[in-house]
Amino acid sequence: MNELPLLQPSWLLPGHLLGDMPNPSAAEPIQTSTDIVLGDPGEPADVPTLLIAVSDDSGSVTTPGGSDPLSNRYNEMAAAFTTVARRGSRRELGAVLHFDSPCSGDVAPVPLRRWNLPKLRQGLTVPRDGAGSSELLPSLRRAVTLAQERSRYQATLVVLSDFFLLDSDVDQALAELAAFPGDVHAVVLGNHLVSGRFDDRITVTHIGQADPPGAVGRALFASLVQHRTGSRALTDEPPS
């Protein structure tokens, strides 16, 4: 468990993979590299699955001094989706939401297949129309609706945030997170929130300053493959 200072760009992805520095205020869909070592995606699950990734684009994450000022998490998330989609099936769905939901960066559930990767990548960037919200509940409630509309799917929600939440009632927001109709994985960027604040039903992965490149991608990949046959996700530390 890392209780360390905030992420810096070089710890998420080596500079030679990044290309030009992204501009969060005018972000383009990212180009991904799969050089990150994630593990073996195995084969499609025996049951239909739905993974919803929710991303925090607030200033405490994206600005200089934030936990991910260059949005490198999106490169790593794209690598995780790409690795699974190369062996994906129509019964495995992926979606992307943002704290600013509804926004242009939201991607409705699509089958995790190669030809849908461009759609998913459209959501793997800071939304042009995003206001940098620090409130979890709007995107969380949208994720709940997506899961309820697809009740025959095994749903997993992955929230990538520093959890410096500004919801009017943070305890209520975290309670609703724990009540999501499926598995919940909180990927905590930085050291703002300790694991003890989360309900025991939530898997928590902390990503801090000392974590190696690919830590965000491996966290998302672990949730993407948890139901897949013969899969093996590499981890930097066991989640709490």
Structural notes for this entry:
The chain is α/β, with parallel strands linked by helices and 240 residues long. It has one domain (9-16, 40-233): Rossmann fold (3-Layer(aba) Sandwich). Helices cover 25% and strands 18% of the residues. Strand 5 (154-161), helix 6 (170-178) and strand 6 (183-189) form a beta-alpha-beta unit. Helix 3 (72-85) packs parallel to helix 7 (215-224). The protein is globular, with a radius of gyration of 16 Å.
In brief:
The protein has 240 residues and is an alpha/beta fold.
Spatial order of the strands in the main sheet?
4-3-2-5-6-7
Beta-strand portion reads 15-25%
Helix/strand order: HEEHHEEHHEHEEHE
Low-confidence stretches: 1-33
Question: What is the total tally of β strands?
Answer: 8
Mean pLDDT over all positions: 84
Total domains? 1
| Helix percentage range | 25-40%
* Anisotropy-based shape: globular
